[in-house]
């Protein structure tokens, strides 16, 4: 038996998220069908993150166990040929130690959220950004974001139904990056993320930026451990899983 690691990129617009559903197109479902087509084996892939419907990835990671003897480079080419829709790519296939698991072995993740802060439409960006037409106070957003860096209970940014054993996470970096094309990147790097955590944080930061709540509210929001205290979740379209870190 071999353990293989896949590195993936996808446009999540037309997927119902990562996880296999009883009906509908999913990233996991497409990949498992491609693996079966190339190897003849029915496998269950483990993903590093269960991205929601509409969320994208530049560096998603999946793993599975297999008896196939197809070399990893040839397997990558085979999977690419089997994935014909064009919105899902296998960037790399690698043999890894037997005990490697895409989710359990992860030591951190980097997400990027893209906000188009402009009154003008940008048709080529609409699938990958959240357009916020009102001006955003970047300084206030940065002040609020700084409160979240460190190890905290992030229950205030956790969706109902999240099955994580603990809501405590280490936020290693939360940075706002201005780009020349008018897109604001909000990058969040943490040991791990709770379900809905990134979109809840971004939605709250945008409310601060629009002046709907002061940056000074953020410590109380975090301490409340109440999802109702934070802002509305940002749309899925602006979110991308950029990288998964391993030892």
Structure characterization notes:
The protein has helices at residues 27-39, 72-82, 138-147, 197-209, 218-224, and strands spanning 2-10, 46-47, 56-66, 88-96, 106-116, 130-131, 150-153, 168-178, 183-190, 239-246. Strand 8 and strand 9 form a beta hairpin. Strands 1, 2, 3, 4, 5, 6, 7, 8, 9 and 10 form a 10-stranded mixed β-sheet that branches. It folds into 2 domains: 2-96, Alpha-Beta Plaits (2-Layer Sandwich); 107-246, Alpha-Beta Plaits (2-Layer Sandwich), CATH 3.30.70. The model has no long low-confidence stretch (mean pLDDT 96). It has 247 residues and is an alpha+beta fold.
Key terms:
10-stranded mixed β-sheet, 247 residues, alpha+beta, Alpha-Beta Plaits, 2 domains, 10 strands, single chain
Q: Compute the separation of the termini in Å.
A: 22 Å
Helix content: 10-25%
Q: What is the helix tally? A: 5
Low-confidence stretches: none
Structural class designation: alpha+beta
Question: CATH first level of the largest domain: which class?
Answer: Alpha Beta
Number of separate strands: 10
Rg over alpha carbons: 19 Å
Report the biggest beta sheet as strand number plus sense, adding barrel if it closes: 10 strands, mixed
Mean pLDDT over the full residue set: 96
Overall CATH architecture of the largest domain? 2-Layer Sandwich
The run of helices and strands is: EHEEHEEEHEEEHHE
Shape: globular
